[in-house]
Amino acid sequence: MPDNLKRFASRGLMAFFILLMPFATALAHPHVFVDAKAELVFDGKGQLTSIRHVWTFDPAFSAFATQGLDKNHDGKLSADELAPLAKTNVTSLNRYSFFTILAIDGKKIPLKFPDVYFLRWQGNHLTLFYQLPLKQPIAVQQKATLEVYDPEYFVAFTFEKKDPVTLFHAPAGCHAEYHPPKPIDAHIMAELAAIPIDQHDLPAALRDAAVGLANIITMECSLS
Amino acid sequence: MQPLVRNRLSNRAFRTAPLLITMAVSLGRAGTAWAVSTPFGIATPDSSGPAFTGPLGGLFAWVALRQAEFYKALEGSLLDLRGSNHAFALLVGVSFLYGVFHAVGPGHGKAVITSYLLVSRQTVRRGMVIAFAAALMQGLVAIAIVLLAAVLLHATAVQMTHATDWFEIVSYSLVTAVGAWLVWTKLFRRGTRHASDAHPRHHTEHHGHAHNHSHPHVHDHGHEHPHHHRGDEQCDCGHSHVPDPRLLKKPLSVSRAWAATISVGIRPCSGAIIILVFALSQNLLIAGIGSVFAMSFGTFITVSALATLAVSAKDVALRFVGLESGNAERVMRVVEIGGALVVLLLGLTLLGGALQGGLPV
Predict the structure, then answer these.
(1) Which of A55, A87, B153, B220 has the fewest other C-beta atoms within 10 Å?
(2) What does the pLDDT read at residue B139?
């Protein structure tokens, strides 16, 4: 084999190994399934003050999460028995920005650490309730967008069919709508496959659509 | 060390330096994304970083969605188990499929096993044995953790997560150790081969080499005719490139295979632990254990298929390059050094990621 071919072959092999590296990390896959509900809370003056999440976990994760928490062995999980876990949950979620992205009139709105949080056990499900206050209450002029999803797909979010989103004390003329994640289809896969290898940053919308992750809640207000 | 040997070593180190640096950089970039923490403070994710990017992103997204479906089906069939006896067959079937899909995507276990097989020039059959042992061990570790922690000690999810995080750290440390071991033998020990031609006393050091020289007859005869020993060794040195099947039983090679197997198998999957605790909460622990074994078998099927593919691909590539020429040897060496570095750097990166948040207490 000629020298340049040899060099080509060995370089090719090195490139192969280098390309292999990112694939050596595990494939993302969910171990937590959340059935969510969102509530947008306004003050009396037409300003959005906080977001309330109601997240119901799947039976397996619920069982795992509450393992060993029934301290008095009465077969029931009281609020007291669940309180430490609720604290662990929100403290950990903080590092993930609570999987919550809020934008009002095209601007991303910062959120504070939950001021209320607790867990409840019902049937064979655990449900986490918590309230995320906005750093600054703000009036929605035209449109608010709330995205809830885990880009790493360890948590698979879906919203409940009945009342996925509720408005509290919202100004008249505002209404909210829930847009479920789009299931992946052949068309999106083809679109993804067409993206050149060197383009590392996929358009966010395309990536989320491909994964079928993003739950989007939109609230539009028409000031009359 | 003889000057000639030192020259070879520094020359080799010099030639591989750019490769090392490139890999370190590419890993370092990925490393920050690999820092593992967990959204709810319990159950550590198997992966971290943006979910599905790159050319295969669409495919992986599809696999992940199927996997999520099988997981939900598994959960459902466990709940149905109380109602009917036929549900057990369904549970086992779904668990098996979950195991198959769980292993389809990328994962460090597959990277370690396939790299190890390539670097150590293992056979397909040996690869399947390692894949089987690793998958079985992964299931057994999950079962042992749940039996000990949940059944006996009534541990909480937080405590169990800490326990599995420790297993993860042990796993990644072992991956690093196996990688370092492979790099050491491939990069440096190899260089002493030529020196040992002149010094037969060094010969025994070579037993660990995948690229080993086989001379079982030396040992068979050695005890009967000790005075022939030295001469036999000399004539066998450095030219037999076909590994003797009996060599696979050599202690060093076997212990390295064990180390590779344990490094992968000791880290339990969060899914298996969650399903087991769930089964326990439903008083269906036995069914849960059956489910985990079915998962392990599914994982084995996929990993052994990938391992077979890797070993065959290497063989095809070698045939393409030409077995006759010295090129095959050179290409193999690049593959082996590359593979050994992959294992080492992967171990370091995973370990760094796992330790970034501090030790689990």
Answers:
(1) B220
(2) 95
| Tokens of residue B21, six digits | 């640096």
- Between CA B337 and CA A9 the distance in angstroms is 15
Residue B14 pLDDT > 80, yes or no?
no
User: To the nearest whole angstrom, how far is the Cα of B61 from the nearest Cα of chain A?
Assistant: 5
Is the pLDDT at B246 greater than 70? The verdict is no
> Which residues between 79 and 118 in chain A have a beta carbon less than 8 angstroms from any beta carbon of chain B?
85, 88-89, 91-93, 95-96, 99
Smallest Cβ distance to A64: which of B27, B278, B334?
Answer: B278
| pLDDT tens, residue by residue, A70-94 | 988 888 999 999 999 999 999 999 9
Give the CA distances from residue B205 to residues B105, B170, B184, B232, in Å, rounded to whole numbers and listed in that order: 38, 28, 13, 16
Closest residue in A to B113 (Cα–Cα): A24
pLDDT of residue B134: 93
Residue A3 lies in a domain: no
Domain extent, residue A154, equals 26-182+214-221
| Helical segments of A24-94, H only | 59-66, 79-94
Residue B317's pLDDT is 73
| Highest mean pLDDT out of B20-24, B77-81, B214-218 | B77-81
CB-CB under 8 Å, B64 with A30:
yes
The CA-based dihedral angle spanning residues A202, A205, A211, A217, taken in that order and rounded to the nearest 10 degrees: 160
Please name the residue that has the structure tokens 């068309």. A187
For residue B93, give every residue at least 6 positions away whose Cβ sits within 8 Å of its Cβ, in sequence order, or none: B294
Examine residue A2 and state whether it is found in any structural domain, yes or no: no
Q: Residues 6 or more apart from B354 whose CB is under 8 A from it?
A: B36, B165, B168, B169, B172
Mean pLDDT computed over B130-138? 93
Nearest residue, CB atoms, B72 vs list A16, A33, A67: A33
- CA A3, A9, A13, A19 torsion-angle sign: positive
Domain limits, chain B: 54-201+215-355
Task: Provide the 3-class DSSP secondary structure of residue B182.
Answer: helix
Phi, psi of B223 (to 5 degrees): -75, -30
How far is B357 from B347, CA to CA, in rounded Å? 17
- Show residues of chain A in contact with B63, CB under 8 Å: 27
Within 34-63 of A, beta carbons closer than 8 Å to B belong to 58-61, 63
Identify which of A38, A30, A16, A34 has the alpha carbon closest to the alpha carbon of residue A127.
A34
Burial of A187 (0-12, 13-18, 19+ CB in 10 A): exposed
> Does the distance separating the beta carbons of A95 and B157 come in below 8 Å?
no
Which residue do the tokens 């760094």 mark?
B352
CATH number at A32 reads: 2.70.170
CB atoms within 10 A of CB A34: 26
Structural domain contains residue A63: yes
Contact residues on chain A for B324, CB-CB shorter than 8 A: none
For B238, counting Cβ atoms within 10 Å of its Cβ (0-12 exposed, 13-18 middle, 19+ buried), the class is middle
| Chain B residue at shortest CA distance from A69 | B156
CA A178 to chain centroid, in Å, comes to 14
How many helices (H) and strands (E) would you count in chain A?
A: 5, 11
Residue A36, domain member (yes or no): yes
